[in-house]
């Protein structure tokens, strides 16, 4: 993580890479003696290892020049970056073209793809970081890049070193590289592949509000891949996120429990002991997770139940797609499997690689604020209604930048599923696309997220495609309200392993009925009058009626989403009995869930690590 001495991490990475290359070349020499017919594979390995090493050395020189503020260093980095990406792609292509009828040669091919892929991930992460720094004009560095670029490099380098070390251990333990080139006749005739066991792929796109997708009413046409999945699969029209805060929402997603019972309150460390990921593991699934959000990390206990979990520090979608691809090709994906992928791209700051060229040519429109953190710090945190200080066209500009991020994510998700399809992992597999929360653009006076529970923040998409559970029909839409907390319990029930406790009451997602358990959301943020950020907000939904309650100040609002989807008309005075019943239900849920949290060891305690991440990512100042 940022703050660890950089030289030690860089040295560890270089050492791991050097040892790997030495082992490969040693096996190469042994293999040459064993079988001269393996020459093409050996030459490819030698070229890929030497070529990637040379590109890494060039990258290090570029980074040193930028750190020394050498004139023209940024331009040189960008030009060299494009060339390096092309060369790395060529290396991956050469490795992928190796004839891999023998399983050991297939492993060798996958290792070389992984070797080049790790370097490409580093390149893509660094480019995203530097471009964000260049164009987030007026924002502090920690809000643009979330740490210095070199700290970011050190973090990813340490992760890559761990991956390489794992591969090195495999080489030492099995010496399969040498065996792979020992000559023909090493295996019998190919055996027919049995019917593939099921797979579940859950992709969570951080900060994706439902109405950003064409399937939910967006008219921009910027999400063709996800819209195609929606047409061919099932669209859940009214899914509510458990919170407008990532770690709170994911804790409830993973546990099937509301934020109070999951102990995911404010800055508390969630009660990972109730994670349902381990239920999939216990049911025989290979569980594998990738997270681009540094809050959803092993350090914060989100790896609980995963057989393999890789968290990254804020990389763009191409890096995560590359991570999944290279890992799957290197190590395979045993079936049945549960794969979780969390992407970060729509999250602020809204600078995708698609946005950067236009910013480089034209800059920001005159008078426009491009970084929502500036608005949040200068208006929202001072108790001001930002709608009175920021032009409506500025909100539209922010949303346009956000939508470019959404479109960029959609395109890379399409690439990912092309890869998984080519590898055979979409056969008999259920694909789920959803989000942890949405984003606001001054609809109710704030930007970003975390601080409110209006629909722009808690209405999230949920699309299912592929091997659908019974009760769901391809090409259909589910109008009944549901909670994101129902997803994993319902999937486990479908697999014959329904969970116990609070999660056991949330297994009706595929039933065609509204959730029997409360559809609740919780956050800590803004009062209704926007005067301070000291409210504890609870939202409840029944049918089309939605209630938002500030439990600290005993204030509330009631809305009919059917006639008032923008939540402008408070009905609490005209429907006092309904509002009172909702209030009683919210307080009862809060009390009973906190008691349940204490019963299973979830007594609230502050997490310094979580506070550090929230501050680093712009949530705290």
Report a brief summary of the structure.
45% of the residues lie in helices and 13% in strands.
Q: Give the strand tally.
A: 15
For the biggest sheet, the summary is: 9 strands, mixed
Please give the share of residues in helix: 40-55%
Poorly predicted regions: 1-12, 28-37, 135-150, 167-195
What this model shows, in words?
By secondary structure, the protein is α/β, with parallel strands linked by helices. Helices cover 45% and strands 13% of the residues. It contains 18 helices and 15 strands. Strands 1, 2, 3, 4, 5, 6, 9, 10 and 11 form a nine-stranded mixed beta sheet that branches. It has a four-stranded antiparallel beta sheet with strand order 12-13-14-15, covered by helices on one side. Helix 2 runs antiparallel to helix 3 and helix 4 runs antiparallel to helix 11 (317-331). The radius of gyration is 25 Å and the shape is globular. The relative contact order is 0.12. Mean pLDDT is 80; it is low at 1-12, 28-37, 135-150 and 167-195.
SSE inventory with pairings:
Layout: H1 6-34, H2 39-67, H3 73-96, H4 103-135, H5 141-144, H6 149-174, H7 176-180, E1 199-205, H8 224-232, E2 234-240, H9 246-255, H10 277-282, E3 286-291, E4 308-311, H11 317-331, E5 337-343, H12 356-362, H13 372-378, H14 392-422, E6 429-434, E7 440-441, E8 447-448, H15 455-458, E9 459-466, E10 476-478, E11 482-483, H16 487-494, E12 519-525, E13 535-542, E14 545-550, E15 555-560, H17 576-599, H18 608-616
Parallel strand pairs: 1-5, 1-6, 2-10, 2-11, 3-4, 3-5
Antiparallel strand pairs: 2-9, 6-9, 7-8, 12-13, 13-14, 14-15
């Amino acid at each position: 993580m940022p703050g660890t001495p950089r030289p030690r991490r860089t040295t560890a990475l270089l050492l791991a890479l050097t040892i790997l290359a030495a082992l490969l070349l040693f096996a190469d020499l042994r293999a040459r003696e064993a079988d001269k017919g393996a020459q093409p594979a050996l030459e490819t390995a030698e070229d890929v290892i030497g070529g990637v090493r040379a590109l890494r050395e060039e990258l290090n020189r570029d980074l040193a020049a930028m750190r020394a503020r050498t004139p023209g260093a940024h331009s040189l980095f960008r030009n060299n970056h494009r060339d390096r990406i092309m060369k790395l792609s060529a290396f991956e292509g050469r490795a992928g073209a190796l004839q891999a009828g023998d399983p050991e040669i297939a492993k060798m091919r996958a290792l070389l793809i992984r070797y080049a892929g790790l370097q490409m991930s580093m390149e893509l992460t660094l480019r995203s970081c530097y471009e964000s720094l260049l164009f987030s004009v007026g924002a502090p560095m920690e809000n643009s890049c979330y740490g210095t670029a070199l700290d970011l490099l050190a973090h990813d380098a340490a992760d890559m070193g761990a991956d390489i070390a794992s591969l090195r251990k495999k080489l030492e333990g099995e010496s399969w590289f040498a065996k792979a080139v020992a000559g023909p006749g090493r295996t019998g005739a190919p055996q027919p592949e049995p019917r593939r066991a099921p797979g579940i792929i859950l992709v969570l796109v951080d900060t994706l509000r439902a109405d950003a997708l064409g399937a939910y009413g967006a008219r921009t046409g910027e999400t063709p891949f996800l819209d195609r999945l929606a047409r061919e699969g099932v669209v859940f029209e009214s899914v509510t996120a458990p919170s407008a805060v990532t770690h709170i929402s994911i804790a409830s997603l993973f546990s099937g429990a509301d934020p109070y019972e999951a102990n995911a309150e404010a800055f508390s460390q969630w009660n990972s002991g109730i994670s349902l990921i381990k239920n999939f593991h216990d049911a025989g699934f290979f569980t594998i997770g990738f997270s681009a959000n540094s809050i959803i990390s092993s350090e914060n206990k989100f790896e609980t139940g995963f057989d393999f979990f890789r968290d990254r520090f804020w990389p763009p979608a191409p890096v995560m797609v590359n991570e999944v691809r290279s890992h799957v090709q290197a190590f395979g994906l045993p079936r049945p499997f549960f794969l979780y992928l969390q992407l970060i791209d729509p999250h602020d700051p809204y600078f995708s690689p698609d946005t950067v060229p236009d910013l480089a040519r034209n800059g920001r429109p005159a008078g426009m604020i491009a970084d929502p953190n500036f608005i949040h710090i200068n208006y929202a945190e001072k108790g001001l209604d930002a709608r009175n200080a920021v032009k409506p066209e500025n909100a539209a500009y922010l949303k346009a930048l956000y939508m470019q991020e959404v479109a960029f994510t959609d395109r890379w998700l399409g690439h990912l599923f092309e890869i998984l399809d080519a590898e055979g992992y979409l056969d008999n597999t259920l694909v789920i696309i959803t989000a942890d929360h949405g984003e606001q653009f001054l609809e109710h006076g704030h930007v970003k997220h975390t601080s409110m529970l209006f629909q722009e923040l808690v209405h999230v998409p949920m699309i299912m495609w592929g091997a659908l559970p019974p009760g769901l029909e391809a090409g259909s839409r589910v109008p009944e309200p549901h909670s994101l907390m129902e997803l994993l319990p319902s999937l486990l029930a479908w697999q014959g392993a329904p969970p116990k406790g609070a999660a056991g009451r949330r297994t009706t997602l595929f039933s065609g009925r509204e959730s029997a358990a409360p559809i609740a959301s919780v956050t800590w943020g803004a009062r209704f009058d926007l005067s301070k950020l000291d409210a504890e907000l609870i939202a409840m939904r029944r049918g089309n009626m939605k209630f938002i309650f500030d439990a600290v100040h005993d204030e509330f609002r009631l809305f009919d989403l059917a006639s008032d989807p923008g939540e402008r008309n408070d009905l609490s005075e005209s429907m006092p009995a309904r509002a009172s019943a909702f209030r009683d239900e919210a307080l009862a849920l809060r009390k009973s869930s906190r008691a349940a949290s204490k019963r299973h060891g979830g007594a609230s305690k502050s997490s310094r690590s979580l506070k550090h991440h929230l501050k680093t990512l712009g949530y705290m100042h």
